[in-house]
Please model this.
Amino acid sequence: MKKVITYGTYDLFHWGHLRLLERAKELGDYLIVGLSTDEFNSLKNKNSVDSYEKRKQVLETLDLVDEIIPEENWEQKIEDVKTHQVDIFVMGDDWEGKFDYLNEYCEVIYLSRTEGISTTQIKKEMFD
Ligand code: C2G
Model:
């Protein structure tokens, strides 16, 4: 079984998120999402509209996603890859190069971001 992992906040789930997860799942048989906790979001200077629990519930409705683990810090990825015996690490290419250190432990693939949609843009439209 080929295991894929990706990480993110996945706030106000949208088409861009879905396309990323679809393409990530196509690379293997089992997809793990490291979902940023509310505490880690503040470390990322990213305040999500929805709580971790709500964001997790949305991802749990997707057959695409086989497992969700909390992303609590920047340092856990190597341990996660080892513990979960991950074969492929995937991120959107807004992170291109940032996680190349994981090449020692698994394949690292950056997928193109979906243009024209972002949580930031949705928040602006919701709250402006
Ligand atoms: N994404 C995308 N297209 C968009 C928006 C997001 O492909 N229009 C991708 C991002 O590249 C990322 C994933 O969807 O791979 C989740 O996006 P975010 O929730 O914004 O993730 P981020 O806050 O960048 O967290 O340790 C890594 C971080 O947790 C990544």
